[in-house]
Design goal:
It is a single chain. The protein has 192 residues and is an all-alpha fold. The protein is 85% helix and 0% strand. The protein has seven helices and no strands. Helix 1 runs antiparallel to helix 2, helix 1 runs parallel beside helix 4 and helix 4 runs parallel beside helix 6. 33% of the residues are buried.
Length: 192
C-alpha cells in the first residue's frame, strides 16, 4: 500500500472489530472518505507540480509527463486500499482474489498492448497502471456498498491517525523506492 495508507490500514484492522453494525459502516465510510480526499489532494499536488518535481528528481523537466502520470495513479490507487481491506476484514477471499485477478489481467494485457504494440515505453507502463487501477476501483465500489456508510466522523479519523501514524514513517522509504524506481530506470536507460 501507499505510505499513509499502510499505517491507517493497520489501525483500521485494529478498530474494525471494536464496533458493530452501523458504527462499523461509519468507520469504514470515514476511512474511505479520508482516503478519497487524501488521494485527490496528493494526486492534485503531484499533477500540479509535475514540472518542479521532475526538475527536482532529474534536474530537468523531461519527465514531467511521467510524473503527472504518477499523480493520476495516486488518485486511484490510494482509495483502492479500502475495498481490498474490506474484503479481507469481511473474509471475502473469493471476492478479493477475483478483483485482484481482474486487476492483474487488465494491467498485464494493457502493458503488452501499450508497451509492445504501441511502443509507449514507461508512459505505457504507467498508463496501464492508471487504467487498471481506475477500473478496479470502480468495480470494487459496487461490492463494498453494503459494508460502508459514506460519512465522515472525525473521531474515527483521530483514532485511526493515533494508532496508524507510527507505521507511516516506517513504510515511507519503501514506498519512495517503489514509486521512483520506474523513473530512475527510464532515466538511466535514456542516458545510455
Amino acid at each position: 500500500g501507499m505510505v499513509a495508507s499502510a499505517g491507517l490500514m493497520s489501525a483500521l484492522h485494529r478498530l474494525y472489530f471494536t464496533v458493530d453494525g452501523d458504527e462499523r459502516k461509519a468507520l469504514l465510510g470515514s476511512t474511505y472518505v479520508w482516503h478519497l480526499v487524501v488521494g485527490i489532494l496528493c494526486g492534485a499536488i503531484i499533477i500540479g507540480f509535475s514540472k518542479p518535481i521532475s526538475n527536482l528528481l532529474f534536474l530537468n523537466a523531461k519527465y514531467q509527463v511521467e510524473t503527472l502520470l504518477i499523480g493520476l495513479y495516486f488518485l486511484f490507487n490510494f482509495p483502492l486500499e479500502i475495498p481490498f481491506n474490506i474484503f479481507r476484514l469481511e473474509k471475502k477471499s473469493g471476492v478479493y482474489v477475483s478483483y485482484s485477478l481482474i486487476r492483474f489481467l487488465l494491467d498485464f494485457g494493457l502493458k503488452i498492448f501499450l508497451i509492445i504494440v504501441l511502443d509507449r515505453g514507461v508512459r505505457g507502463y504507467l498508463e496501464s497502471g492508471i487504467i487498471s487501477t481506475a477500473v478496479t476501483l470502480l468495480l470494487t465500489n459496487f461490492s463494498i456498498a453494503r459494508y460502508i456508510k459514506l460519512t465522515f466522523r472525525s473521531e474515527y479519523l483521530k483514532e485511526l491517525l493515533r494508532l496508524g501514524v507510527p507505521f507511516i514513517f516506517s513504510v515511507f522509504p519503501l514506498w519512495s523506492l517503489t514509486v521512483s524506481d520506474r523513473l530512475v530506470l527510464n532515466y538511466i536507460v535514456d542516458q545510455s
